[in-house]
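Bumping with the actual sequence this time:
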Amino acid sequence: MAQITFKDTPINTNGSLPAVGSAAPDFSLVNTDLSTVTLADFAGKKVILNIFPSVDTGVCATQLKTFNQRVAGMDDVVLLFVSLDLPFAYARFCGAEGIENAVTASDFRSLSIGDDYGVKMTDGPLAGLYARAALVLDAEHNVTYSELVSEVTHEPNYDAAMAAL
């Protein structure tokens, strides 16, 4: 379990992020076309796992747009947006914001990211949603960067994440 804050109020998560140097746990997510997305789908590619509470908040929207801009033109990198938002919300958001450099995936069916990456908030007003986190995986899907953002209303360290690529 990890402790973070939401508007300076302490809250807990259900576990801890995978450590740098460890193999990233597999997952089973749902893409906007309702197909299944797993880590194996990105074999041989570096992956930025961009985990957040909801596309319908200002900080999350900024996080998504910023990572989208930063990976533009990087053919060996997959940017993966992950939350419990429904695939339809992702389609709406990405269409409205012109986001084209990301794979959007919901964990609403399996909760595999929440369980295996330890990001589910267990108390506080956002209990049940995912905390804000960024992980970078190398082409073999080992963790090279792992950040659980200490305050849910803050953005991740984009520079550190990009440097880990």
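The tokens above came from a reply further down the thread. The chain has a mean pLDDT of 94.
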